[in-house]
Amino acid sequence: MTQVNAPTDGVAVTAIGVALIRERESRGPDRLYDDPFAAAFVDAARRDFARTEEGSARWERVVTLAEQFFAGRSVGVRLVDDRVSEAVAAGCRQVVLLGAGLDTRAYRMGLPGDVTVYELDLPELFAFKEPVLGAVGATSTAQRHILPIDLSTDWAVPLGERGFRADLPTHWIDEGALPYLRPEDHLRAVATLTALSAPGSRFGLSRFAIDPDAPPYAELRRLVAGDSDARTPPLDAGRPGEQWLVEHGWRTEFRAWDDMIVPLGRAVAVNNPNVGVVLAERV
Ligand SMILES: C[S@@+](CC[C@H](N)C(=O)[O-])C[C@H]1O[C@@H](n2cnc3c(N)ncnc32)[C@H](O)[C@@H]1O
Prior knowledge:
Elements: H1 13-27, H2 38-49, H3 53-89, E1 94-98, H4 105-108, E2 116-121, H5 123-135, E3 143-148, H6 156-161, E4 170-174, H7 183-195, E5 202-207, H8 215-224, H9 242-247, E6 250-256, H10 257-260, E7 276-282
Parallel strand pairs: 1-2, 1-4, 2-3
Antiparallel strand pairs: 5-7, 6-7
Helix pairs in contact: 1-2, 1-3, 3-8
């Protein structure tokens, strides 16, 4: 059995929660997508967590959180899949996953071989992900490059060293990673991707209406902080919003969550017309 080391705390642990969500969705008869690698990540992580009593207890907490977030988050995965398909159909040949976690779109979506997927995440995440993918013999249909890096540092130069081209349109995906950065680092990351975006590039900003003190969010923060420091999340002030994007050369369009989910047939409406995604295209 391949020896792996699943992150059991720190922000990378959140990626395991999302893998649990994709594994559950993939088992369902009415699944919105099929991630055949999610089960391998879940199995490997479960084994790793089970090495200690404390780890076993944390595993149960990750599982509980994944169940609590399942309904909305799983639909969110499918919506991002659809946007990737739209972008590729429109000619984008570069997809960059900011905080890729245990995402396997380079393997599971049948993306053409002339598409390059760049996955950015912390080194401890890839120290777990790559051996698991290797052990199951995963083969990506698209070109795939990983960049183990902290997104709050300068990642533009190392991305270029992996072959990224700023003169080609890019589809940028932030699927729950940038909000973990401090507001100034979040803004710098969006400024960086803006500078690297040729006309036709795409990006999206989620607009939520959540209570950060509601139990699942507070528990998520405790888990990420290793129970040592359950800080309140940083305020949204200073993070880039739709206005920032417009002022920096993006054309934007807001799509309400409740409209986007209609074709998917899941009862996850939020009944708030302000919740959704600001879709941005570089002009
Ligand atoms: C909620 S998970 C989502 C993962 C993936 N996008 C998905 O949907 O499965 C957040 C991801 O962001 C990554 N992340 C958070 N802060 C980061 C940072 N400063 N640098 C790099 N990655 C980071 C975590 O390691 C984790 O994989």
